[in-house]
Automatic annotation (TrEMBL):
Keywords: DNA-binding, Sigma factor, Transcription, Transcription regulation. Residues 349-466 form the VOC domain. The lineage of its organism: Bacteria, Bacillati, Bacillota, Bacilli, Bacillales. Belongs to the sigma-70 factor family. ECF subfamily. It comes from Cohnella soli. The keyword Transcription regulation applies. This is Sigma-70 family RNA polymerase sigma factor.
Amino acid sequence: MCDDIERVQAALLGDWEAFGAIVRKYANVVHAVAYEVVRDYHTAQDIAQEAFLKAHMNMHSLKNPEKLGSWLYSIVRRLSLNALRTEGRYTSLEAAFDLQTGQSVEELVLQRDVRRKVFDALNSLKEPQRLASTLHYVGGFTIKETAEILDISIDAAESRIRRSKDSLKKELFVLMDGLMKNDGFEQNIEREVLRAIVPRIATIEIPVFDLRRAVEWYGDMLGAKLQGEWNDEWKSAMLHFQGGSGAIGVPSIYLVKTEDKRRLTFKNTRHGYIQSVIDLYTHDLKGYYRFLKERGVDVNEIDWEQEPNRQGFGFRDCDGNSFGVCNVELTGQGGGSQETPKAHPFVWRVAGVEIPVTDLKKAVAWYTVTFGMKVLGEPEGDWEAAMLYLDGGERLGVPNFYLVETQDEQRLAFVNSYANVTHSVIDFYTANVEPMLTGLRTRKVKMNGASGFFDPDGNSLAICSAVHRGQVSNY
């Protein structure tokens, strides 16, 4: 199982695609093993997902990567037996299939009957034959791989599979093959597992001089609400957006009081203008422009009659941090069906974060490897910027990353003058902090304190497992 060894090694270094490949390979068999114990479709789904999450969290403890299959098998068996001892609400196999949508009644009945026949037949076998058959026929593993997972000889595995085949009707194997090809379970569970572990932007940290003034400004101009009751002793404040299911708390805004004069802004030296760092999404571009202008915000001048199709504009907050606003929907950022938030008449969410880099190609390679990001589109000619999005499932990509090649030395970093530490600007959420930090250290990434680090260009980032309302589910 040399593929398993390579995938485990890559996953330990933070390669999300490698771990996704592991999930796809073992999804059906992990689900089948769980179902064999608990005899409940949805419970088996939950156990399968939990098994992969535990595997990801503890993969560093796997001393022999070639034993990945048997290691996963032991995890899912243990979780399944624990679930069997725990009282809970279970969904029958029949009810589980009745809940599916997008299929005709005839298709639902046929698929339900096929699955019932397959599982009933397997469950009629004695345990040694049942386990071997589940791995071989449901999981799609070779006899050699089945032997390795069960830690038995190839002859023993072959004997068990032969005996089960003698006991089962021939037409069952045709049904089983068709069921596994059309089930799609491996894609579904891969999406859900990666949804839980792939880093996403949880917080953007912003330097300000007067914290109270900044909190009020962000509330009035962006609709970002203060978390908790104001305290005059605060040196920082957490704010979050709210409104639609895709907008709540993604990401939060963390205002940090500091005497450091550096701000989140940089110059695009190729075109000679100030680049926005934090891009907001609005459904009404012209309306928001008028809203900010009427309130004296520093907004770049636009002649809407000359540029009627303009897709965005820039402005600064009360401390000089650079913002932009657009009405363009990008990969994974939701659709027009989202309701306008009650918290603010114009602002829906943070749509993107723009990052200055010296060498665009190197930066793209680093971010794609480190965070599993995908590049939106293909480079054409003299590529000067790249849009990346977080891809652990179709809902990710909020906000996108926009890497901008520039010779400006300004980077996204600032010093907290009260604590005398370099603050991270972009905080990524992941359920498993230590494995990712281990991967970063292994790759000799420059670290900054316990969970902070710098990208190759000196932009300050961090990893955290702390979440705020709405940042994980419904997103």
